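FAQ

Q: What does a record look like?
A: Structure on top, sequence underneath. For example:
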């Protein structure tokens, strides 16, 4: 009586666990966190490399300090710019600026190393939480499945007792 349900349980328990694991929305979120942690680890490694950046700017104004500073920066300051009237009330001045910068991280080794180590620990933590979630899901599905089997066994035992009692009544 107990062998057929138990044999069926061994065949279908695995498929029930796999179905529960594949349909768990929490596991998808944890998988996304694993990918995020791995990307953060790669990003922290990439921060050790030199950076090249290009900048452009456009400004226009007639503020005396702005005009004076722009002329000095562009090295186009001449004797005529020292005129007091022209200095205090300059015409509109347009300034274009372009720059190309190369940055090399020199004194950030400890920060970069710490960031990379933290990213690695975060990735390990998420992987462990993913495994923990899988174990919890397996436990819950197995527990529910065994409860169903136990209920089926109790129903079969009750059916057998009822049949035995009916047979005893018939024979009496």
């Amino acid at each position: 009586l107990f062998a057929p349900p138990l044999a069926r349980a061994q065949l279908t328990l695995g498929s029930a666990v796999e179905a529960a694991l594949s349909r768990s929305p929490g596991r998808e979120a944890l998988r996304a966190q694993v990918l995020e942690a791995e990307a953060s680890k790669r990003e922290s490694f990439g921060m050790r490399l030199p950076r090249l950046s290009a900048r452009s700017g456009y400004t226009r104004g007639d503020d005396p300090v702005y005009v004076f500073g722009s002329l000095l920066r562009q090295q186009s300051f001449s004797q005529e710019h020292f005129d007091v009237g022209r200095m205090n009330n300059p015409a509109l001045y347009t300034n274009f600026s372009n720059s190309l910068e190369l940055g090399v991280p020199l004194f950030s080794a400890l920060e970069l190393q710490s960031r990379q180590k933290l990213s690695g620990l975060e990735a390990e933590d998420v992987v462990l939480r993913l495994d923990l979630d899988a174990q919890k899901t397996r436990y819950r599905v197995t527990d529910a499945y065994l409860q169903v089997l136990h209920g089926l066994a109790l129903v079969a035992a009750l059916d057998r007792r009822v049949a035995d009692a009916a047979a005893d009544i018939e024979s009496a």
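Q: Is there anything notable about this one?
A: The longest helix spans residues 109-171.
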